[in-house]
Amino acid sequence: MMIKIGINSDTKQTVKTAVFNTVANMISLVVGMVIIPIITRVISTEDLGIATTFLSTRNIMTILVTLAVYAYVNRAMLDFKDEKKDYIYTIVVFCAVTTTVFFGFSLFFKNSLQKWLGMDDFLFYWLFVSCFLLAVYSIGNYYCIFHNRYILVAVTVFALGTVSPVLSVILAMLFQGHRYIGRVLGLDFAYIVVTVCVLFWLLFTKGKKLRVNYITHTLKFTVPVMPHLFSQMILTQCDLIMITSFVGSSYTGIYSMGHTVGYLALTIMSQIMAAWSPWVYRRMEENDTETVFQNSKLVILIGTYISLGLLTVSTELIQIFLTKEYVSCIYIVPPLVAAMYFQFIYVFFYDVEYYYRKAKWIAAASTAASVMNIILNWIFIPIYGY
């Protein structure tokens, strides 16, 4: 009976987190859609392509630079129940150290890396700052979601989805001749704020300790799972990078707008899944798999309705919010929505694998998919374009 009460209370808190998270995200999406016409008029397709390529590169590099330790936070909250703040402190310090080491090493190959990544001096240096910001943001976000701090989560989502895009337009207008810099700095604004808050929280937390065993314990899981994380990034970001490489930044800018619209459904579903995943871990810890199974039906149904709804209105959204330069996005969005839906379904499988630390199984499936994606892009982008 006590277990049932605990489950009911936890479920209610998780539902609150999911609802607040989703509502904040919906508001952000509305603001995002309203601001799209402004973005396309203020920022050229080339500058938009440069900024989008940088952010895609940053997302992939963060996995490599930090060895993806942030991906273990949910599981670590169960493994180290009585030492949670020590764990957060340890992996934040670890991310700072590895980012610094990686940056120092990259200076020896600066010119080659800049040419390969298509970055000027500012973007090259900011890349490593941005990697650290994203890693700390992810750690803080996972911690808050696991503990159902739904107000903090909602505020963060709102800042990331509303304040950052608006600020990116304002800064782009200020950076004449380098509008992509303003775009990048604006979109990183929420990461900067959250990182500062996390660092201050850790600074004023008394009695915290660095524990090497946390790192070794975490890396035993995250290093084998890195191919999966790389694969997930490749599946969503590789298209943008390869389009820039094969046909140019302007076409990446056009594709990125279609990607933005196609990504709307997954963005909403991801906010639901952010609260769902740690809830699943807590139920699995109590061997209550039946509750997970029954509730998963509802979550999948919600995801199906959201995806079908976006498919229904996507043409109208593009015609209303985008300029004529982006009209071809009408043909890009439907297959992207379908792809995002299957990615959403896939989360249900790897949540369980994450819990049981079956990193090799996760990595095998994701790697196969990403390798196929790269090969198909390599063959067909030069033939058919973006």
Q: How do the helices and strands follow one another from N- to C-terminus?
A: HHHHHHHHHHHHHHH
The Cα radius of gyration reads 21 Å
Q: What is the straight-line distance between the termini?
A: 57 Å
Q: Figure out the total of helices.
A: 15
Tell me the helix content. over 70%
What is the general shape?
Answer: globular
- Ranges where pLDDT stays below 50 over 5 or more residues in a row are 1-6
The largest β sheet comes out as: none
Q: What is this entry, summarized?
A:
This protein is mostly helical. The protein contains 15 helices and no strands.
Overview of the structural elements:
The structure is a single chain. The chain contains 15 helices and no strands. The chain is 87% helix and 0% strand. The radius of gyration is 21 Å and the shape is globular. It is an all-alpha fold and 386 residues long. Helix 2 (45-66) packs across helix 8 and helix 2 (45-66) packs antiparallel against helix 10.
Fold blueprint:
Layout: H1 2-42, H2 45-66, H3 73-79, H4 84-106, H5 110-117, H6 121-146, H7 150-174, H8 179-187, H9 189-203, H10 212-247, H11 249-262, H12 264-285, H13 289-321, H14 329-355, H15 359-384
Can you give keywords for this protein?
mainly alpha; single chain; 0% strand; globular; disordered N terminus; 87% helix; 386 residues
